[in-house]
Amino acid sequence: MTEPLIAPLELPFQLFDVQDTETLLQRQRFSEHSRETLDAVLDTAEKIATEHFATHNHKADQQEPTFDGQSVSMIPEVKAAFDAYCEAGFLAGRADFDAGGMQLPETIMTACSGYFMAANPSTAGYPFLTVAAANVIQTFASETLQQRFVPPMLTGRFTGTMALTEPHAGSSLADIRTRAVPAGDGTYRVKGSKLYISAGEHELSDNIVHLVLAKLPDAPSGVKGISLFVVPKFRLDAQGEPAERNDVALAGLIHKLGYRGTTSTALSFGDNDDCHGYLVGEPHQGLRYMFQMMNEARLGVGFGAAMIGYRGYRLSLAYAKDRLQGRPTGAGPDTPAVPIIEHGDVKRMLLAQKAYTEGAMALCFYAARLVDDVHSLPDSEEREQTRELLDLLTPVVKAWPSEFGVKANDLAIQVLGGAGYTREYPVEQCWRDNRLNPIHEGTNGIQALDLLGRKLWQANGAGLQVLQQRLQQDLAQMKGEVCQNLSAQVAPYLQQFAELMTTLQKDLRTSALPVHLTNAQCFMNIFSSLVVSWMWLRQAHGAERRLAQGADSEQHADFYQGKLQAAAYYIEWELPLVSRDFALLQQTNTTCHNMKTDWF
Amino acid sequence: MKILVPVKRAIDYNVKVRVKPDNSAVDLTNAKMAINPFCEIAVEEAVRLKEKGTASEVVVVSIGEKACQEQIRTALALGADRGLHIETSDSLDSLQVAKLLQKVVEEEAPQLVILGKQSIDSDNNQTGQMLAALTGMPQGTFASEVQVEEGSVAVTREIDGGLQTVKLSLPAVVTTDLRLNEPRYASLPNIMKAKRKPLDVKAAADYGVDLTSKVKTLKVEAPAQRQGGVKVADVAELVEKLKTEAKVI
Ligand SMILES: Cc1cc2nc3c(=O)[nH]c(=O)nc-3n(C[C@H](O)[C@H](O)[C@H](O)COP(=O)(O)OP(=O)(O)OC[C@H]3O[C@@H](n4cnc5c(N)ncnc54)[C@H](O)[C@@H]3O)c2cc1C
Predict the structure, then answer these.
(1) Which of A112, B127, B200, B209 has its CA 20 to 30 A from that of B189?
(2) Average pLDDT of A419-442?
(3) Residue A265 near residue A197, CB atoms below 8 Å
(4) A430 and B CB contact within 8 Å
(5) Mean pLDDT of A237-255
(6) How much of chain A, in percent, has pLDDT values that exceed 70?
(7) Can you give the pLDDT at residue A1?
(8) DSSP 8-state symbol, A297
(9) Which pLDDT tens digit goes with each residue over A112-142?
(10) CB B124 within 8 A of CB B16
């Protein structure tokens, strides 16, 4: 018997007590499903993650993929796991029935991905990127491109990548230099270098389909001049089979802190001026296409960060119950040593991890439900409102779990003490793997700018209005004692937030704006802490309701008590930290802004 | 050839069980339940025989409360063709289960009945043997290999000290051991297909079997907590401790 990847009660609680996932089954898109099929899908995910992914997480970290100048090799377990994932049908989980898919809700696919992320984030990278790339082609490319590339990507015969970043252009994609020139036959010739491309080369599939951002010769400057191309490693013959090698070359593998099992590649396109590419959709719309997919991609990053954080939490929890050290205050030296979990400071570190990671999970499931609603609500106005809320929350969903997932892993190392710092124990790998998440898919710095500079004001602040309505609706329902007490503690911060919004609105067109943008992280801290407090209130509400029903075993009651305690921890210990950020923003603090390069 | 596979709904092997405070039973309230792992191996073996063309139909039966239908669906998603749920809220012993299965065997006339050798909740290891006795079929228990031949089946059994192969004439009863096979996962498309496969429900009371339990549970207790180990400096100390503390030599 192995320790389960996710505590058995956690996902049912998140999905069916905190979220009302079962109501999705009434929507036409999901009407073929039932609670039974959803549970069965989750079971299969847990089994494959436990038996095929978790088993080589450590080995794949120790034995990185290598490149001998010809091909990339990696430990065989990665391929076995990838194949098991594909054979079970997960690649097509979200896709339409007509496309051989399962039409499963995003909420459920997110929950499934939780098992794989907790088990082995590096190996999970290969299928996850493939799904994301297939999704872009399916949504924006011509029917011909769809027919040729999507079906083999949904079975895993072809895998996918997202090739955006270049050596000199990461956060600022407007500056990319990769070019695409029409070849006269409707196809294009692509030339340029890409860097850090995950899964850019490997032997797991018959073909690799790169989605490449590049500029056409007549492109307007900036982000409005970027187009998107499908560039396969092997061009397809008339039957759609991989044939001639395309002019894409692996310039080298990149060696990283974590996520070592996923190849990170430097790719050269068109060294021999013969790299065939196929335009996706319209010219100059590439970044828009990519960004439409970003809500989902960023949800994936945030949830992955939450799950790696959660894994570290569970591992350090198990260790803390087992490790004997020290005695309670006042106990004599001859009394037996106690498990470290009985020490107050260790409880603090475990509670913080629980509050961060389960809070992040709740946030991601909330966002996943919004994705489902955007795709399946019958009323178009409600769909639009939901989209605004999702857009507003997306920078938070990406940045908060990735910041606090890493913090949780840091605490997991601390709980293990010296053991945590050694490679004999798995928590240092969790930390290294998770450290990527604040960096990719838009750095957390860029997320804070996006939130304060754009999303907050988009559509006249419609997203924030929807958020406030929903928060108030939730609060009105929370009648339990713990929820009442905790929401009373949140209320003054909501009041301060309203005051801050008045200030910011006033400053929008003044010289204070650039200072506020310098301090965007302060706003991110405030906004995300309030959103996560809300998520903890929702969990506390679910737990109080279950406890009031009294129909559960003692073990379950313990689980719900734990939720109430973690909600209290978040709201009493973490939320008050934003007082500093309120003050800095209200006083338009210029310390960072006025710092000069030469003064460093 | 038709194969009948009885499956039991049991607590998921990942769940750490707790005994109820009154020591009457294990607390199953809202606990995660699954197909008993040995039964899952039985389903897998039957499905493989079907895939090889040896079997033509795999019928799964489960006896118990309504929720057993979840485990039947799981078996259907693994590849069984149809399900039979015999509904009862009584908690039955091996003997009542075997008697109900005897009736099902009379109705369905399978050539082979494959069961798990035991269930991980009560560990009785009796139902298959009882069913064989009641129906007069030959039995091959603890199977680690099953070879169906013309009119017979060769079953390799895991016994103390090695393997024994027995040849049974069909129809026969086989019970599975852990090493017989490694069950597949229910793939997502098969989970959907399982929804459309037939599942009959019958009341246990309609089978005319006496369902009163012949076994009385007196008390359920958790196993004693394992004491932490100690490291000894050398063999001499070990021998000393075995003599004086453990008192085993
Ligand atoms: C392991 C790994 C996998 C990756 N996988 C992929 C992939 O599959 N495909 C892909 O296309 N890319 C991938 N990337 C690239 C990743 O998306 C970029 O690293 C990221 O976008 C940041 O770009 P950069 O590294 O050029 O950093 P820079 O853009 O140089 O940023 C450096 C620092 O400056 C800050 N900064 C930059 N601009 C601003 C600004 N305007 N205002 C305030 N602060 C700013 C950033 O927040 C950051 O702290 C991957 C990276 C890694 C490490």
Answers:
(1) B200
(2) 97
(3) yes
(4) no
(5) 97
(6) 100
(7) 43
(8) H
(9) 999 999 999 999 999 999 999 999 999 999 9
(10) no
The span from the CA of B134 to the CA of B246, in Å, is 47
What are the b/e assignments for A394-430, b being 16+ CB within 10 Å? bbbbbbbbbbbbbbbbbbbbbbbeeebeeeebbbbbb
Rounded to 10 degrees, the C-alpha dihedral A568/A494/A466/A540 comes to 10
Q: Which atom of ligand 1 has the smallest separation from the CA of A164?
A: 11
Strands B152-159 and A158-163: unpaired
The region of weakest confidence among A223-227, A535-539, A552-556, B92-96 is: A552-556
Cβ(A518) – ligand 1 distance below 6 Å? no
Query: B70 at the A interface (CB within 8 A)?
Result: yes
Question: Can you tell me the distance from the alpha carbon of B112 to that of A230, in angstroms, rounded to the nearest whole number?
Answer: 54
Cβ distance of B188 and A36 shorter than 8 Å:
no
Predicted local confidence at residue B224, as pLDDT? 82
Residue with CA nearest ligand 1 atom 30? A170
pLDDT at A297: 87
Residues 209-238 of B with CB under 8 A from A: 228
Find tokens 């103390």 and name the residue.
Answer: B160
With beta carbons less than 8 A apart as the criterion, state whether A298 and A397 touch: yes
Kindly report the number of other CB atoms within 10 A of residue A82's CB atom.
Answer: 23
Q: Which residues contact A324 (CB under 8 A, 6 or more apart)?
A: A336, A337, A338, A339, A340, B228
Bond from prior residue into A232 cis (ω within 30 degrees of 0)? no
Least confident of A178-182, A293-297, B54-58, B187-191: A293-297
Report the C-alpha gap between A77 and A83 in whole angstroms.
10
Q: Tell me which of A77, A388, A403, A441 is the catalytic residue.
A: A441
- Strand B199-203 vs strand B172-176: parallel, antiparallel, or unpaired? unpaired
Q: Do A258 and A342 belong to one domain?
A: no
Domain with residue A526: its CATH number is 1.20.140
- Which residues of chain A lie closer than 8 angstroms to B187, CB-CB? 44, 87-89
Is the Cα torsion angle A360, A362, A366, A368 positive or negative in sign? positive
From chain A, the residues in CB contact with B30 under 8 A are 551-553, 556
Task: Give the pLDDT score at B189.
Answer: 93
Q: What residue in B sits closest to A85 (Cα-Cα)? A: B187
Any idea which residue has 């209005």 for tokens? A465
As a whole number of angstroms, the longest Cα–Cα distance in chain A is 87
- The chain B residue lying nearest A3, using CA atoms, is B14
pLDDT one-digit tens code per residue, B191-217: 999 999 999 999 999 999 999 988 889
Range of the domain at A385: 286-441
**What global pTM score does this model have?**
0.93
Rounded mean pLDDT, A328-337: 91
**CA distances, A481 to each of A94, A355, A544, A554, A564 (Å):** 40, 20, 8, 20, 11
What ipTM was predicted for this assembly?
0.87
Q: Taking residues A525-552, report their average pLDDT.
A: 95
Q: Is A441 a catalytic residue?
A: yes
The count of structural domains within chain A is 3
CA angle A75, A81, A85 (to 5 degrees): 155
Segment A269-278 shows an average pLDDT of: 98
pLDDT value, residue A159: 98
Domains held by chain B: number: 1
Same-domain check for residues A136 and A232:
yes
pLDDT of the residue at A2: 65
Q: Calculate helix-pair angle for A35-48, B188-195, nearest 10 degrees.
A: 150
Asked whether residue A471 is assigned to any structural domain, the reply reads no
HSE-CB for A233 with a 13 A CA cutoff:
21
Q: What's the rounded Cα separation, in Å, for the pair A152 and A134? A: 9
Residue A550: per-residue pLDDT: 83
> CB distance from A34 to chain B under 8 Å?
yes
Does residue A450 fall inside a structural domain? no
Residue B249 lies in a domain: no
Nearest to B30 among A89, A100, A552 (CB): A552
